[in-house]
């Protein structure tokens, strides 16, 4: 009986989750819930959303390590591995440079500081600032797992991981596997088997995405709403205009120039872009980004396992290009500082290079402090923008993740290793065909056509 019921596609489930999230968030706000004074409904939404992101972040370290070690071994089968790496970095720089140019133009046209409702009393220096030495300190692994610990309240200890350090450790182990040769085959076989298991666990987590969307978006409505935009409406509009131009103009142009379908890219990358928007975490979205890049967009696993994690730490067109460009113009206008041609060239330089320099402590605020300090602008200007930062972070992160999927796809296409059949395949409303078909085979039930 149940098998005869029509299946609701994954994409439809996510859309239902979006609607329910907004509705429940509005209900919670109508019941008096705020970020500082939650009620039972807002607390439930928060727990559901944060638990999902925590699960995703938990699987990132083993996924990145195992995937990169396996991919380095597999790169022997990919012609021109060094050329792939160089082209990836080159396209990271090209898209970042164009994006920061878009950000500066939008800043000039929109004039984001005009009519701002903030005052000098709102100015405050951030607790953490970016530094050009952060890249060197961030890239050196503190331990083999790339973990760091911080003491909390009542003796609690919280652990966090640095993806860039895990990347470095995994690359070293992968190269060692190649050098050892035949003696490392048992280790490599174990790594590949473990990766398969981790990817299966990831699939189970992804199935929770529609429910997580309800919690993440509902909590966002409760915590931020849209009333905080009022004092910085012009600045907020400028940021989202810049992000929209990158996401819906620049990226489609690059896809078309490289002979790729715009529709297929966005339908293929949508699960990662949507999750990035509601979760506000590129690292938390990393497993999904890597999965859709491989299975929907047709990028070989041997290459995507390297390019996507690298992009998650250094490819940030939203946080490292659009946002710091417009924010720097805002801060300069607010404090009455005239920016010259040299200053705008510095903004472009920091946006292209700075994301790597702050890879150990990534974040839009860190990128902004690096930009402001390079230009000699007051770091206290960061405090002026904190009220709307969570709202902006949704769009920034979605743009970041879209770029992290875009560049490997373009590079794979230009190098002739893209699986065009997988790229052009019908999505059928599912996150990716391969796992859906595998799940259907396990249940011995065919996936109905059109699902």
UniProtKB/TrEMBL annotation:
InterPro entries: Na-dicarboxylate_symporter, Na:dicarbo_symporter_sf. Pfam families: SDF (PF00375). It is found in: Cell membrane. PANTHER family: PROTON/GLUTAMATE-ASPARTATE SYMPORTER (PTHR42865), PROTON_GLUTAMATE-ASPARTATE SYMPORTER (PTHR42865:SF7). This is Na+/H+-dicarboxylate symporter. The lineage of its organism: Bacteria, Bacillati, Actinomycetota, Actinomycetes, Micrococcales. It comes from Ornithinimicrobium humiphilum. Residues 425-451 are annotated as: Disordered. Its main location: membrane. Residues 425-445 have a biased composition (Basic and acidic residues).
């Amino acid at each position: 009986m149940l098998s005869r019921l029509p299946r609701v596609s994954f994409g439809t489930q996510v859309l239902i989750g979006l609607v329910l999230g907004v509705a429940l968030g509005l209900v919670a706000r109508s019941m008096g819930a705020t970020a500082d004074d939650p009620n039972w409904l807002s607390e439930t939404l928060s727990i559901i959303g944060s638990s999902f992101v925590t699960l995703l972040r938990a699987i990132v370290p083993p996924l990145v390590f195992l995937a990169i070690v396996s991919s380095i071994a597999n790169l022997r089968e990919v012609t021109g591995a060094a050329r792939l790496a160089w082209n990836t970095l080159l396209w990271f720089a090209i898209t970042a440079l164009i994006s920061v140019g878009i950000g500066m133009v939008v800043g000039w046209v929109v004039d984001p500081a005009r009519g701002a409702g903030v005052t000098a009393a709102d100015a405050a220096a951030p607790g953490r600032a970016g530094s050009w030495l952060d890249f060197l300190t961030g890239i050196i692994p503190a331990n083999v797992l790339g973990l760091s610990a911080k003491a909390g309240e009542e003796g609690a200890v919280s652990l966090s991981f640095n993806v860039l350090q895990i990347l470095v450790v995994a690359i070293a182990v992968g190269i060692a596997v190649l050098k050892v040769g035949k003696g490392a085959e048992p280790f490599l076989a174990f790594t590949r088997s473990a990766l398969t298991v981790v990817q299966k666990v990831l699939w189970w987590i992804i199935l929770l995405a529609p429910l997580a969307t309800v919690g993440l978006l509902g909590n966002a409505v409760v915590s931020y709403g849209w009333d905080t935009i009022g004092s910085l409406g012009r600045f907020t509009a400028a940021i989202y205009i810049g992000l929209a131009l990158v996401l819906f103009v620049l990226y489609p142009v690059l896809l078309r120039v490289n002979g790729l379908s715009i529709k297929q890219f966005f339908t293929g990358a949508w699960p990662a872009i949507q999750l990035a928007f509601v979760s506000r975490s590129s690292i938390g979205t990393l497993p999904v980004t890597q999965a859709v890049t491989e299975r929907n967009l047709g990028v070989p696993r041997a290459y995507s396992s390297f390019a996507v994690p690298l992009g998650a730490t250094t490819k940030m067109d939203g946080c490292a290009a659009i946002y710091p460009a417009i924010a720097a113009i805002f801060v300069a206008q607010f404090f009455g500082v005239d920016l010259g041609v040299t200053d705008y060239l510095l903004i472009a330089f920091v946006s292209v290079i700075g994301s790597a320099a702050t890879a150990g402590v990534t974040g839009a605020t860190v990128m902004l402090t690096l930009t402001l300090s390079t230009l000699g602008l007051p770091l206290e200007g960061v405090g002026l923008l904190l009220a709307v930062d969570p709202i902006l972070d949704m769009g920034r992160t979605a743009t970041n993740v879209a770029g992290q999927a875009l560049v490997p796809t373009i590079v794979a296409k230009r190098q002739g290793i893209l699986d065009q059949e997988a790229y052009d395949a019908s999505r059928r409303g599912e996150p990716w065909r391969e796992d859906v078909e595998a799940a259907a085979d396990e249940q011995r039930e065919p996936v109905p056509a059109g699902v």
